[in-house]
Design goal:
single chain, 111 residues, Transcription Regulator spoIIAA, five-stranded mixed beta sheet, 4 helices, 40% helix
């Protein structure tokens, strides 16, 4: 099970995910990222602090979103504290596609 919430915050589009991000979450994630790409905010902050698991389909969705956002001049900032989600992003090399932060405050400060 997963939840995705999103709102404009401090000039950025904040997306907060929790639970398990897998194939079941990809269509909703894609729609939210598309809205963020089309919105007026200059940056998108994806908060993964409440995420317990990410499978390859959700990871691919995040990578596509980073590319889509770059295409419209925006940057994806991902919040992932030390733990399995951050290790996955680092081990797979995907953390190079966006800016990785340990806290939401750090992400907003550099967005």
């Amino acid at each position: 099970m997963f939840t995705l919430d999103h709102d404009p915050v401090d000039g950025s589009h904040l997306i907060v995910a929790s639970g398990e991000l897998d194939l079941a979450s990809t269509s909703e994630m894609s729609a939210i990222f598309a809205m963020a790409a089309a919105g007026p905010q200059e940056a998108v902050v994806l908060d993964l602090m409440g995420v317990e698991f990410i499978d390859s389909s959700a990871l691919a969705t995040i990578l596509r979103a980073a590319q889509q956002l770059e295409g419209v001049g925006k940057r994806l900032h991902v919040v992932a504290p030390d733990g399995p989600v951050k290790r996955l992003l680092e081990i797979t090399g995907t953390a190079q596609r966006f800016t990785l932060h340990g806290t939401r405050e750090q992400a907003f400060a550099s967005a």
